[in-house]
Design brief:
With about 230 residues, the protein is of the alpha/beta class. It has 9 helices and 9 strands. The protein has one domain: Phosphatidylinositol (PI) phosphodiesterase (TIM Barrel), CATH 3.20.20.190.
Amino acid sequence: MKYIAHRGLSSKAPENTIPAFELAAKEQRYFGIECDVQMTKDNQFVIFHDDDLQRMTKAKVRVRDLTYEELMEYNISKGNGIKKYKDLKIPLLTDYLEICSFHSKTAVIEVKHVHDITMLTDLINLLDDYPSLTVIIISFNMNYLKYLRAITQAELHYLSDSITESEIYDARVNQLGLSLRKDIISKTLVNRLKKEGFKIAVYTVNDTKDALKFQNLGIDYLTTDK
């Protein structure tokens, strides 16, 4: 079972920031580093989880409604270890890719929002600039993943907190792995999905006993904050 750092080492530094990614990159135990990607008003790929900035910066404005230059006016003011890090900005996707590439970590990219589904082609073109980098793209949006499967052979995973038969069918047809919330995973479900050839990831696991349980079930990837 391979371990993925959720939004970087987010238990030690604010999530989805350069410090969180750099801390995760220095830990040998992590196979990959996960991030959340969305687009600014002027079509820049940036790393941020929420639709709006309120939780992390106290500003009630959406990422997609700001240009990148406007976004740079806000500092991240929340998160673990925030007192150690001054003037933190929201990173560009390329900042994260440079870290993953330099440290030979798999980039696990959750696509949150693009203005138009065809802009996912721009994402793949950007990733092609890093030929030595291993990438896994994940999303809760099945349509995004279907589009991506048509244009890339990269490993893709469908995220779900309540997997359905129709989602399993779509994942099988489109050659997607399944990344599932920890409390919906059972031995019966894992055995079935494994027999059908799926790669299975679990999120977000921060307890050692749970991690051992999922390892014994044969889970492929485990995402953790710790």
